[in-house]
Amino acid sequence: MSVHTTGETVDEAKIVAEAEAALSDIAKTKEEIAKVIFGQEQVVESAITAILSGGHALLVGVPGLAKTKLVETLGTVLGLSAGRVQFTPDLMPADILGSEVLEDSENGKRSFRFIKGPIFTQLLMADEINRASPRTQSALLQAMQEYHVTVAGTRYDLPAPFHVLATQNPLEQEGTYPLPEAQLDRFLMQIDIDYPELEAERQILLQTTGTIAQEASPVLSTEKLQAIQLLVRRMPVPESVVDAILKLVRSSRPGHGNETTDKHISWGPGPRASQSLMLCARARALYDGRFAPSLDDVRALAEPVLQHRMALTFAARAEGMSVQGIIKDLVAKLD
């Protein structure tokens, strides 16, 4: 039995036809990204899944793992206008949102004119977001949730679609600030980037130290990407997948009957995590060439969707436990 959360009638034949048309574009997207990003297939899959779901992603890893290159390549391949902000300790909110300037007209009258900041783009790369102060980090909150900003009491809508792909250095490194919990929750998923495998690093050496650099070409247009994003929201979801999402997210919260969570988690994911997991499961299925998500999608996405929405108790940290380990235990109980 399948369900559809939007309340509209599902025309399965039409969805299948649209999905088949989208699969070709997604396959070409993978090929173009592979020209520039070597290895890291899981990272590429997660990043594309986040964008197809219509959300934002947080890329976490040490410097030099091609996080910036990945974001630039995604902007090119997906046909999105892209902007970049390098977050530093002295960055101010106006440096991101824009500001009003006082101008004199030809007749001598003075008026304010709003100059848009780099956030007015379709794909914003927030580079090393945790190097800026919490005040500056919070400048993204309204934009990431409501897709507009308010400056001096005036609302300015952002381009559509609008995505934030932020890179972050591990918190144990010097000169970083933890992201506020409210902002972490706005990210659809956290994508951890590890060092490349041996063969991938060998390919990086051979392909990037010569005289000719590989470049990716555009595959999608803004209109095609938005059509795929709408398709993702219309994909039918089996009842078993809905039940698994609810069971997993609710068991991740303290006070909901799970002994491990009650003992080791101080706060857990809210309803936005369930929404994120539902959308990402649909997008991952389409990315893999399937027309409906499965329990395997929920298992694969549990860690990236939940880990930044949970916090260990002090005692759990002292015992050397990890959020990732607890999520793995919860996923194992889905069977």
Automatic annotation (TrEMBL):
Pfam families: AAA_3 (PF07726), AAA_lid_2 (PF17863). It comes from the Bacteria. SUPFAM superfamilies: P-loop containing nucleoside triphosphate hydrolases. Residues 262-329 form the ChlI/MoxR AAA lid domain. Keywords: ATP-binding, Nucleotide-binding. The keyword ATP-binding applies. GO terms for molecular function: ATP binding; ATP hydrolysis activity. Residues 56-189 form the ATPase AAA-3 domain. Belongs to the MoxR family. This is ATPase AAA.
